[in-house]
Design goal:
- This protein is α/β, with parallel strands linked by helices.
- It has a single domain, classed as P-loop containing nucleotide triphosphate hydrolases (Rossmann fold, 3-Layer(aba) Sandwich), CATH 3.40.50.300.
- Helices cover 42% and strands 21% of the residues.
- A hairpin with a 4-residue loop joins strand 3 and strand 4.
- Helix 1 packs across helix 7.
- It is globular, with a radius of gyration of 17 Å.
- The protein starts with 5 loop residues before the first strand and ends with a helix.
- The protein binds cytidine-5'-triphosphate.
- Cytidine-5'-triphosphate binds next to helix 1.
- It comes from Blepharisma stoltei.
- Pathway: Pyrimidine metabolism; CTP biosynthesis via salvage pathway; CTP from cytidine: step 1/3; Pyrimidine metabolism; UMP biosynthesis via salvage pathway; UMP from uridine: step 1/1.
């Protein structure tokens, strides 16, 4: 593949439905589309941070390695394959393996910080912000973190009050102003989804011809 991939950024609050929207777009495009999560670029914690993991702010931009994220996207946009780390939420660290991300016609970067870094924003062709009611996000997060991420309900609520909601207000919600499209309710918003797919198919056809 030697055409520069078209980069889509999908940001929004935690558990707002970014992953579902990304996966639905990937399925609907019927061409190769790589999805990368900003969570792959969480920094590993130091041993002392690991001892007090409940007090670590995973929702602050400093928790992410934006230089590495930048380099990975730059390579993909220059048609190079790149090894993306796999993040293990139960151990709060990267696992030992990687995913080989390919420079496909469409690449999606999804995650709470997908639109945060100005250099990354400049690389993104289509910026989407998923906006879901915060009660719904919290309800989904409680279920997900207790069932899939090895947390108990008290730690989920402590983390939400102390870090997740304040970071949403301070860093994530303000990114909405950089987006091209705001999708209320995420993947279940069929009309917004159809409009996005129509737009991407036009892009695809113009690249194919
Ligand atoms: N997080 C955590 N522990 C870690 C690393 C991250 O609890 N070791 C949490 C952060 O608090 C952050 C969230 O993971 O809020 C980021 O993931 P999230 O956006 O919730 O996941 P997605 O699956 O992308 O959410 P969505 O439902 O929108 O798809």
């Amino acid at each position: 593949m030697n055409v520069r991939p078209y980069l889509i950024g999908i940001a929004g609050g935690s558990a707002s439905g970014k992953t579902s929207l990304s996966n639905k777009i990937q399925e609907a495009l019927s061409v190769d589309c790589t999805v990368i999560s900003t969570d792959c670029f969480y920094k590993d914690l130091t041993p002392s941070q690991l001892l007090e993991v409940a007090e670590y702010n995973f929702d602050h931009p400093d928790a992410f390695d934006f230089i590495e994220m930048n380099q990975a996207l730059w390579k993909l946009l220059h048609c190079e394959e790149v090894n993306v780390p796999i993040y293990d939420y139960t151990r709060c660290r990267r696992s030992d393996s990687f995913i080989a991300a390919k420079p496909t016609q469409f690449v999606i970067l999804e995650g709470i910080m997908a639109l945060y870094d100005p250099k990354i924003r400049d690389m993104i062709d289509l910026k989407i912000f998923v906006h879901t009611d915060s009660d719904e996000c919290l309800a989904r997060r409680i279920i997900r973190d207790t069932e899939q991420r090895g947390r108990d309900i008290h730690s989920v609520i402590h983390q939400y009050r102390k870090f997740v909601k304040p970071a949403f207000d301070e860093f994530i919600f303000p990114m909405m102003k950089f987006s091209d499209i705001i999708v209320p309710r995420g993947a279940e918003n069929k009309i917004a989804f159809d409009l996005i797919i129509q737009n991407l198919k036009i892009k695809k056809n113009s690249q194919d011809n």
